[in-house]
Every structure is written in C-alpha cells, then in structure tokens.
Amino acid sequence: MKRRTFLQAALATPFIAGLPIVRDVIAAAQGEGWRTYEVVTKLEIVNPSGVSRAWVPLPYTAKTDWHTPLGNTWSGNGQVKVVTESKYGAEMLCVEWEEGEKAPVLEVSSRFATRDRAVEFSRPNPNAPSLSQAEMSLYTEPTELIPTDGIVRETALDITRHARTDIERAHAIYEWVVDNTFRDPKVKGCGWGDIKTMLETRYFGGKCGDLNALFVGLARSVGVAARDIYGVRVAPSQLGYKSLGLGSTNASKGQHCRAEFFAQGIGWVPVDPADVRKVVLEESPGNLQINDPKVVALRRRLFGAWEMNWLAYNTAHDVVLPNSRTKIAYFMYPNGETGGKVLDQLDSDTFKYTITAQQINT
After folding, report:
1. Please, which pLDDT band fits residue 362 given cuts at 50, 70 and 90?
2. CATH code of the domain occupying 117-307
3. 3-state SS of the chain: helix, strand, coil percent to 5?
4. What residue segments make up the domains of the chain, in order of their start?
C-alpha cells in the first residue's frame, strides 16, 4: 500500500515538543506535583467496504487545577478533522477514508499534564465558582439511560431522607452505591449505565459505566448537579492498589469512567464508588470483605479525591457521531464504521486499535 500521510495541525492545538513554551509548561507542572503523559491511539479497519470512518476521543479540553491539555498530532491515510460536540464540548478526531482504500489506518498522539486532586471539605472557599443556570440544568437533567424520575428519584429520596446539604446528599448516595452494588466481571467493556433497569431488577452488578452512572442519576434526581467523566488509565497506581492502574504501557483496555458532584463553596468534587467495588473484587487476594482495611481506606479517599494516573476525555452523554447515524451512550472508546455498518468498539477482530501510554520526563 502506498501510504498517504496527512498532518492536519491547523485543525487542532498542535503539540510541538521543541517549543520553549511547551517545555516550560511541562517543567513547571512537574515541579508542582504534575506529571506529563503521552497517549497514542493506533487503529485500522479490517476488510473495509465502501466509505470507512472512525472517531477517536481527545483529551478533556478544559484547563483545570488537575488537568492541562498539551495538544494532539495525528497521521494516517484518510481525511481528518477535529470536531467539538455542541452540548458537552467533547472534542474528537474524525477521519474518513474514501471507497477503495484497502487498508485504512490512523495514529493519534495526545499529551497532557495532570496531578492528583483532593477536596478539603472543612475549608469552603468563598471565591469558589458557582454553576450558571444553564450548567445547573445540564448537570441535573436526565439522559436516555440515566432518568431522574420514577424509581430513580424514589430511591434517591429514601437514601437522602436525613441529609440536609448537597454534600450530605452526595455522601449518602456514595455510601449506598458502595454498600449495595458489586463489580460484575461478566459485563462487557465498562457497562452502559442503564440505571433504571438496575433499580427495577434489583441487580446491582456492573462496571464503572454502570456504578458511577447510578451515583450520577441518583444525585441528579434530588437536585445535586453531577456528571460522569469518561477517560482511560495511563499508569500504575502509586497508592498500592494493583487493580487501580496499568500493569504495562498498554492502555487498550484501561478505559475508566469516574464521577463528580458540585458543592457550593467548594466546586466540583471527585468521587469514584465503582473503584471501591473494583478493589473489593480484584485486589489481592481477591473478593475482599467490605471492612478490609484496604477497602476502608480507599472508600474514605474516593469521596473527594482522585489519583490522577488517568486521562479525562469528556462528560458527554447520548453522543451522535458526526457524519453518521450512530448514537452512543457515552464517548470513551474509539468508534468506527465501514460501508454503513457500525463496528463493535469492543471487538478487536474487526476494529483493531491499540492505546499506549507513557510518562514523559524532562
């Protein structure tokens, strides 16, 4: 195959390692507890038929006190552009290969800096940002798989009946999710977060896309702004939990969804009840008791803190992929199609991709 390479730097914030300003950002970040990573996604479409397309999530575009995007580059043999989803601001790379391209390929490289985050609940900040009315509406509204009425609201009202503040409501819901759910290894991928079915069937098994969606839906149903954040693990855990990090540079199956809620005087608060249940199931020697010291310590930590060996992509739900009829519950995996047929984002036999991650030292 004669490969045609397109570098569409004009369509996105480029990463150029030699620029002094980038070196300065990385050096300053790492000097303040920040770490810089590079994530590379390589994909190909096997047995293409007609026009082929692919969509790859790009790093969270917001610059926060725990995340700084440092740009993206890409190469391949298709027409590439960056698209920003209108409702949630999710950024993605979209590529299209013409009919007749026998070996569609794409490689995307992204760099970002991140550092661990933790909230100090005892020290409210009078200068903390507030949510606008539009943001409050967005992060308390239902999605297709996360309703906020009926059994969801009834369950949440019961859970939070003694709570008086948003923090108390969120904490009660967090504890309920940890106590009542379990990680189900049979669930494919990260689960899709159909929380109404979970509550109606009383089957509370799932993975991060289910359990953290349950937290978000219950919180929204009682007026607490909350959101899922979709991303991928990029490094081993430094907290001593093997199950909460990568064992190598291969991040192809490292996708992980987290959650946040908003508290006045503090801002967005990180939580992750799903990772508590992951430790219960997977941390050595396995099937730990809920009162095991490893579980107790992490349970306390993950209400208000995240270890940032993880890249955030976006907070988007019910995403319609550009130039496609495909609608997905969330956008955390690369997606593809060929000849109008949607490719299974979890099936490496027909939609091959690898994601690698490494820390960059300066």
Report:
1. low
2. 3.10.620
3. 25, 30, 45
4. 9-115+334-360, 117-307
